[in-house]
Amino acid sequence: MPNVQAAIAGLMLTIAVAAPVRAEVWKCSVDGKLEYSDQPCQSKGAPMTPRSLQGNVIDTATDASAAAPTRRASIPPARSEQLPLASSNVCPTNGDIAGMETKASSITLSPESKRFVQDEIRRARQCQKGRGNYSAADWTISKEAVDAQSSFTGAADARRRSEAMHSAADPNEGELIARQREVEDREALRRSRAPIDR
Predict the structure, then answer these.
(1) SS in 3 state form for 28-51?
(2) Does residue 140 contact residue 43 with C-beta atoms inside 8 Å?
(3) How many CB atoms sit inside 10 A of residue 155's CB?
(4) Where in the chain are the domains?
(5) Strand, helix or coil at 27?
(6) Whole-structure pTM over 0.85, yes or no?
(7) Neighbour tally for 73: CB within 10 Å
(8) What residues contact residue 176 under an 8 Å CB cut-off, 6+ apart?
(9) Where is composition skewed (Low complexity) in this entry (predicted)?
């Protein structure tokens, strides 16, 4: 019996030692900027009350699409002004990407459709790496556009809708799509001016 009591006492001691310890957090004003520290402020500042501190918890009950900020339809910012990567991002699964890869290997797709589907695969993989700010509705537009590439009508319009969505969701992608359009337009103009060989 003494061994059991010793084991219980040891367990209670372990639990007491392992209990979380709350440290004081200081809110300091340094050169007009707010900083947080576990040490008292050297200049102006005050300790924060435990009630004002929030735990490091993510609410998984919140719908990610509802939590996504509203998109602004604007010109993407310059590279130096770009916003940080989004923290709540809905992306296609590996299964969705595998389906797109199957579609991209179809011999019935036109070169433009094949290139578009391959671009969608690249965008989906970048989304998984945290690039852009996508919702589930965005990827529905992408899926519909990929499916439309097998159709004889509507493929080009579906591509434009999806690319507009990507431009809004990811400034870097918007920039890349705009550059691709410029190259394609120059190539089309060059072909239209080329003499016809007879």
Answers:
(1) EEECCEEEEECCCCCCEEEECCHH
(2) no
(3) 20
(4) 111-192
(5) strand
(6) no
(7) 7
(8) none
(9) 65-80
